[in-house]
Amino acid sequence: MRQGYAGLNEKHSRGGEPILSPDPTPFERLGGEPAIEALVERFYAEMDARPEARGIRAMHGGGLEPIKFVLKRYLGEWLGGPPLYSPHRGPPRLRMRHLRFPIGEAERDAWLACMSAALAATVADAELRGWVYRAMASLADHMRNQAADSG
Question: What pTM was estimated for this model as a whole?
């Protein structure tokens, strides 16, 4: 069983069976599905509004609803919520799924700026917000598939 926020146990085993735990998961601490919904909606609103995010927004194409749906399911499961992503899409393999997009430092930084603003707007608990951001920053850095920007 993996450990989540501040050493808290996830609520679901690999088979999806609930595990009794007195500790809330990050998903629960954030506020569950409504909080994930608000976070993802704000994230994409930030992406639409920020000039530095134009490049990454263009990678998503015109209609965002299917992409939002998948991100909500992924983030919910990743944060210890119900397993709604993996049963339908398999293992995340995020880097592999994003290899078709050129992702360098600028794209990573734009993505993180949007996520940071979305977290600031939707997550009141500063400690939890910081934990989620740091975990996402590590993930975003792992997604880079372009050489470091020279400057």
Answer: 0.81
